[in-house]
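Chapter review: from sequence to fold.
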Amino acid sequence: MKNKNKAEQTDSNYINREISWLYFNDRVLQEAMDPATPLLERLKFLGIYSNNRDEFFRVRVATLTRLAEAKSKIDYPTHEDPKESLTQIIEMVSQKEQKFTNTYNFIVDQLRFHNVFIINESQLSEEQGSYVRKFFKNKIRAHLFPIMLNNVKSLTYLKDQTIYLAITLLRSSDPDSEKFALVKVPTQTCGRFIELPGAQGSTHIILLDDVIRYCLSDIFSILGYDTFKAYALKFTRDAELDLDNDVNKSFLEVMTESVEKRKHGEPVRFVYDLEMPDRLLQKLLKKLKIAKEDTKRAGGRYHNFRDFMSFPTIPNPDLYFKPFPPLPHPLLPDNKSIISAIKQQDIMLHYPYHSFSYIIDLLREASMDPAVKEIKMTFYRAAKDSSLINALISASRNGKKVTVFLEVQARFDEEANIYWANRMQEEGVKIIPIIPGFKVHAKLLVIKRMEGEHIRLYANISTGNFNESTATVYADDSLLTAHQGITKDVDKVFELFESRYIPPQFSHLIVSPFFIRGFLIEMIDKEIQFAKEGNGGKIVIKINNITDEMIVNKLYEASQAGVKIRLIIRGINVLKTELPGISENIQAISIVDRFLEHSRVYQFGNNNDPKVFISSADWMPRNLDHRIEVVCPIYDEKLRSELIKMLDFEWNDNKKARNLRFDKLNNYVEGSGVDLRSQFAKYHYFLENSKLPQ
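The token string follows.
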């Protein structure tokens, strides 16, 4: 117990959560640098890294900045100083910037050996130059509306996350004629990449930024200018939503207005081309009202690398991962009732190894089945053209009672979710209103079907979103069950929404913000007791993030009691493993590979009778205290064994696993014996077991 108190009181026993996140994003950058990753996949990883970093600044850096400014007015609930965190963040981001740029340049060079050429405006052939000017005239120029900087007082209305070109304009006959202009690069309407004519068998790509650079005379020559230079810039705003408490407005109205206000949030980062002249830079900073030194960063020629996540498809399979087409599930044959299959036994789908279309088919079947009376479902992030939501609308049109909790507070998906909420309401779907301050993160579906004289319930409980787009790249686990105890508990979660968060009694599910924290502590305490009795103790956790210090301290206590703990953590981890006297029995790894590891699986040894759970919840204060989350037990012995096998694959990964030991952060796990890449091993496992029973 003495060591436990030491763990609770010593700041050095924790890793700063923001720094831990930066190490996670560095693992993404490692994938872009890995020679074993195909070249165009490496380019996509650069896009993911860039997109992650932008969101980090919009959310976490913005929050830290607000906390740092308020420090003299509030007491901190945490031992981390926001100003110190900001200093460390800026230093780490700057260190990675050159590595990022070098990686991009290397990939561009290597693509040339595959006859793929990413070129700029100075590298165009005469034929390509003519093509670019024609393309610019027909497709681009109509979307450009330059701002003459000498004529405006403020630029605070500019959009964040958008590329602009700051341009110097000169008349060669008059060196004192220099003026400045600003042009928005219209990537949303015109795309970022343009394919150019070239030799047969080769591909030439130019970025829209460089198309505009090449054609600046077509815009400004009418003013007598003949010499131009353009420098890219972008800035990032605070993405926090300021919610209006006006009781006369619906929550959808409040959210719509708040999303609009976000567009005018405080700038938290201004990135500009290092080559930009200081006189132009100072003019921009003044008109953008950016004064803080730590919000400015000199960068390279190109920004918004997230666009490279959608780089044009090149007809060369060597540049991509070998395809892993979704596999059939042996218990779900084509053109057979999915509801009947679930009635026979519990079924577990593993995305993206299995097809998400099973869930679409299930809803389609429920929408047509005359015995189905009611469907209830949660959505956190819906796909852009969601077949699931269209199936629910169809069910409503077919006379079913359809109830949906759609989380319109899902960060950066608010506008899409507001659209879907309004669309479903128009079609007679009941949309459950939410309470500001709480988010519903549980992924739940329940179908009520009249069988004989009784209602029978069917449910789907998933670790990931009901989103057919992300299900092709997010690795998640999804339980289909007709276990009446579990399904009734799922229905009670919807009662919880509609009763305004008066918690009912649950018999099987564990639900936050009421019970998950206590459940986790109880389960860890049981393993501690087993260890003290000499029966061993074992915990294996796969999760996205661990930041909750109460749970971390309980894991430290378990380690000191002799419980063997394995953690598979994709993202943030504040826990320090293998600390003498604190956490010798805790080991942790992280896997970043072609699919995003997103599932949450908890395994407790339970004196050699393992208990296994899937969940939507990470071990973070927000998930345990401020969200509706669900932990679901896996009762079927075969499914428990299958999930344990998946955890074993991941723990033994020696190709894509990184060490999370505090003094070896991000070092690749050293291989011993046979090479094992867990995502490939899982795919081949499901491939071998994909044959349908005769």
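Two observations follow directly from the output. The chain has 20 helices and 26 strands. Residues 1-10, 72-77, 241-264 have pLDDT under 50 and may be disordered.
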